[in-house]
Amino acid sequence: MNITNLLKIALKALSNNKMRGFLTMLGIIIGVASVITMLAIGQGSKKSIQSQISEMGSNMIMIQPGGDTRGGVRQSASAMETLKLTDYESIVNETRYLSAVSPTVNSSGQLIYGANNKPSTVYGVNQDYLEIRRYSVSDGNMFTEQEIASAAKVCIVGKTVVDELFTNGENPIGKVIRFNKIPFQIIGVLTSKGYNSMGMDQDDIILAPYTTIQKRVLAITHIQGINASAIKEEYTPQAIDEIGELLRRNHKLKETDDDDFTIRSMEELSSMMTSTMNILTILLASVAGISLLVGGIGIMNIMYVSVTERTREIGLRMSIGAKGMDILAQFLIESILISVTGGVIGVLFGVSMALLVNLGLNFPIYIQPWSVILSFAVCTVTGVFFGWYPAKKAAQLDPIEAIRFE
Description:
Elements lengths: L2 H13 L2 H40 L2 E6 L19 H10 L3 E16 L2 E10 L2 H5 L4 E4 L4 H5 L4 E4 L1 H7 L10 E4 L2 E9 L15 E4 H9 L6 E6 L5 H15 L10 E5 H44 L1 H9 L4 H38 L7 H27 L3 H6 L2
Parallel strand pairs: 3-8, 5-7
Antiparallel strand pairs: 1-9, 1-10, 2-3, 2-6, 2-9, 4-7, 5-8, 6-7
Helix pairs in contact: 1-11, 2-9, 2-11, 2-12, 3-8, 9-11, 9-12, 11-12
C-alpha cells in the first residue's frame, strides 16, 4: 500500500472522530504555545535588561570604600572613609584603560521650590559623570571646572524633578531651589531617560559639583565613591586590575591585607543578570514543556483506544494482503498528523499570546525563530515517539484473532 492511500485512510479515520482528534491535539497545542510564550517572555526580559544596562554604560566601573560586604557584615564608619580625592587624582593621572573618571558623594533630603517639595538625592560629581552614565544636557549647560573649584551652588536636574517642582510649566533654567535649606541655582536640565530595568526613575536626579556637596552639604573631606568608564567594554578587566593595584599602593596595603575598597563593573552585573534570566527562561520552558509531555501521553492513549476499536478493521486489511508495515505506517501517520496539526496551531497560538502579552501588559518579548522551530520539532518527535508503540501493537495483531474480536 502506498503512502498516498495510507494518508487518505488516516485522514478519514481522524475525520470520523473530529472531537476526539481535537481534544487529543489540545495537549500539543497548549504545550507548544506555552513553550513559545514562555521563551518569548524570558528572552524579552533578558534583552530588555541588557539594553538598560547598555544605556547606563556597559563599560562603567564603580569603586566603593570598604571591603566586600556580601557576607552581610556591616562596615565600620572608618572603613567607609577610605577613598580620598588623592585616589581619584591618581586614577585620573596614572591609569591607561579609562576614558572618564568622576568622584561621587551624595546626600538625601528635601527639594523645595515655592510651595512645592519632593524628597530626592543630590549627587556630587564632575563633568565626566555624564559620559559615564550616558546622560546628556537637553537645556542649559553642565557646570564648569571653575564652578567645581569654587564649590558653586549650582546644579542640573532631571525631568522628574522639573515636573514635580515646576508644576506651572515655567522654565527651570536660572531658578533657585533649596536642598535642606541650601540654595542651588539650576543651570541645566538632563535629557529624559525614563525607568531602568529595575524600576528606578533615572530622571529623578539632581547633579551638583562634588566639592559643593562635600563642603556645603556633608562637611566631609573623603569621597563616597568613584565612577569610571573603560575605554571599551573589553578593556574592563584590565582597568579593574589597574585600579586595584593603584589603590592598594595608595592605601599602603600589604600583600596579606584585604582590600579596603570594592570594585564592581556593569559587565559583572550584566553577566549575573543574563545568567539569572537564562536559568529563569529554562525553568519557564521546562514547566511549559511538561504540557508537551502530557499531550504526547494523550496521543498514546487515544491511539491505544483507536487500535482497540479498529481491531476487526485491522484484521480485514491484513487478511486481504496488507502487511504489518502498512498497518504500522497507517497508525503512525495518524499520530504524526495529530501532533503536526496541533504543533502548527500551537505555534500560531503561542506567537499570538506573546504579542498579546506585549501589547496588553507592555511586557518585553522576543520571539526567536529557533524557539518556534524547536517547539514544532519536539511536537513532531512526540507524535512519532508516543504513536510508535500503539502502531506497533496494531501491526503485530494476528489477522484471524483480529477478525474474531468483538
